[in-house]
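Human: We require from you a protein record containing the residue sequence and its fold in token form, and nothing else.

Assistant:
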Amino acid sequence: MTFKTIMLIMLWVLALVIVAGWIYLRRFERAQLYFPSPELQTTPAQFQSQYQDVHFTAADDTPLFGWWIRANRPRGTMIYCHGNAGNIGSSAHLAPEFTRRGFNLFLWDYRGYGKSGGRPTERGLYEDARAAFDAAAAISDGLPILAYGVSLGGPVAIQLAKDRPVAGLIVESSFASAADMAQRWFPRLPLHRLLSVSYDGAATAATLEGLPKLFGHGLDDNVVPFQSGRLLHGAAAKPKGFALIDGEHGSGAWFTPDAPGNRELEAFLSQFKR
């Protein structure tokens, strides 16, 4: 076997290793980002909330699904961008928390989650959020529309606030960017340099001047480190507020009266009058 042949074989092996490594990295990235469930095991009806199914479509024709929960004498509509696991059924218990405060609630699923079609991607989730806003606006009777993002839903809601005329933004238990999270989760690996996603909520929030914003995060959050949530808040343009919250990651514990963060949440919502 000649030296040239040996070198060609080594180059082919190296190329195969690089391709295999890249495929593994992309699969690993998706496994860390998205945990969708197709089964809607819980509905708002189990929490004494009437709702109606909403079928709508993203700009790329991906079919999407959500629930519309109307409040009595509403003062606004809340578009809820959930986290990276489960589906809207996991958030159904929050329906009364919004409606009793005078907000219609639009719970909807990203592509690949619940009854929504397609496969989740960063670009796709942003596109889905825009479609959710448009669907909610069509049935909100001109009321102000707010965006609420939890965990992975944080950068989705923040991007929505840039893309559509939302009246306010609430972000719970979210992070500065995918790169920041990669550095915090895997500090000994250079994964933050190899990501195919950005989910850079901090950079986008910095552009939202004049939009009322409230960020909440727990000191003991075991999924998204508190420091990442503070970095996100720090990067956001004014006006903005921050609340220390309690409970498990993304649990919505600040809706409970007298719980940490409840005072700040109620004050933020009070600026939207009936």
